[in-house]
Prior knowledge:
Chain B: It comes from Acetivibrio thermocellus AD2. Chain A is built from three helices and no strands. With about 70 residues, chain A is mainly α. Chain B folds into three domains: about 1-180, Rossmann fold, CATH 3.40.50; about 190-340, HAD superfamily/HAD-like (Rossmann fold); about 365-545, Gcn5-related N-acetyltransferase (GNAT) (Aminopeptidase), CATH 3.40.630.30.
Amino acid sequence: MEKLIELVAEVLNLDKESISLETSRENTSAWDSLNHIRLVAEVEERFNIKIPFEKVPYIKKVGDFLEYIRE
Amino acid sequence: MKLSLLSNVNLDSLISRLSKQYDVYKTEGYGTWIQEIINPDSGLYSFGPDMVFIVLDGEEMLRGQSESNEIIDVNINYIEEAVKNNPNITFFVSNIDLWTAKIESAKSGSKERRLEFLWEDSLFLLCEKYKNLYVFDIKSIVEDKGREQFYSKKLWYLGGIKYSMKAEKLLEQYINRCVASFKGKRKKCLVLDLDNTLWGGVVGEAGIEGIELSDYKEGARYKDFQRKLKEIKDLGIILAVVSKNNFDDAIKVIREHKHMVLKEEDFVALKINWDLKSQNIRDLSEELNIGLDSMVFIDDNPVERESVKRELPEVVVPDFPQDSSELVDFATELYNNYFYTLDTTYEDTVKTEIYRQNMKRRDAQKSSASYEDFLRSLETRIEIRRINAENVQRAAQLTQKTNQFNLTTKRYSEQELLALINDQGFEGFVAYVSDKFGDNGMVSVVITRRKSDSEVELDTFLLSCRVMGRFIEDRIIGFIEDLYKKAGYKKFITYYRPTEKNAPVKDLFERLGYTLLDVDPEGNKKYVLDFERLSECSRKEFGELIAL
């Protein structure tokens, strides 16, 4: 989880402390459509997992990634 | 550093990465790279980048085009025009990777390969023609990583982004290397251990026959590593040995082992003794007159590395690979991280020899009765020429790298220097120094600016640390003074701007008899010399001067 938070902070170029599992697209202006795609790609590559193409739009907050990482 | 990244595919993600470090130009959308580089009033040129990277996707460039060869010619012509019309900007243009091979009969061969080559070849010809153009070798990254890793289908379909995040990171590192090398930030000296570094095993125990160094199998790890180090050396990096060993044991291997790729003369110095390595490295730094922060130390022994790190924090000490079959990759990594070179000058290719001569001069000095006797015995020859297209590359390199004897520490690129000397008012000179021990090549750059009909000022005055302490500056500045005095000027204005490293020339102009006009709180000094008073100033004259 620590790794996920760090990754999100890095991609969004924000402080690690300001990120939690509840950080969402809605409440974070840096999380725009480009960064959304980058987040998905980074999570896939670093955790060596797949997030199906169809599920990408349903990721709304940081916590949503955990479902795929834990699987 | 202002840079710009242009492409025919979406590189926003990479641009966003690079923006954390540099001032990066953002284009509206993508695919407008041709307009951007051709139109002199484009956003690109009003942004005023130092470096422009053009990363092209071959698939996109040739998509749906029946006459691929023609498209390639047209794009190459656009690039040539941009490069030719903007000599102050350094361009990096990528080669192309065509991965969707068309299904065809075996006989028709792979058209994609031929197109890739056509692009590469045309681009390479342009690079030979223009100094401000380099190939951005994206193809090698694709090949090293594999297309599977380099491209991302998901990102392509989601957002029109071709490259995976991994690929982006590699491109970012590559761009960082180009920028660092462009700024002249490479290290100068690679200091190497011997046992288990240049060969396998300990020569003091195993003997010359017992160490691992050969063409095949185990010993080839070290021979291949040495070959790579030799390639680095040939780019103008100097190699030195610092090893705890009996001198006779180790030198026997270097001189006699038939698989030693690196010969005695490839090393600028061999410190083979039982002293502390940190002390040996410090001595080396003094003898070569190279800063500790320009040195990289390689040793397989973690205790030695730790000790050097602690004693000499300025020296770069990379971790040694745990697995010695990775030594060749390690050498490549060293090159990429510390010695990446865009281009070499003649001086680079003979650098080790120049430093070796310097060591001999030091020995001659020790045996001379007085320092002045020693300087006279050197038979120094100083040749001054104007900066021109042939010598500007080395001149720019000197302005980038010279730290100690550098009065104003202004850094210039080749393009900036050429522009400067074509400007009315500026004049640029370089000096070459040789002596009975050998040729030092170009060691000094002087740039002046005429302020008025009676006043001329010094923009740049630097001297390579290799020839410091020989009063060569007296001859050079004497020449400049005479030149302008004869041309009817009355006053010569000079400056000293303090940096962390140029304290050695803090009082140069005081010694040369200039009058201090002003010192500000930062220590910036301004001087004047009235040419009428020139005869009262003393100049040390060692060696023969040949001017223009």
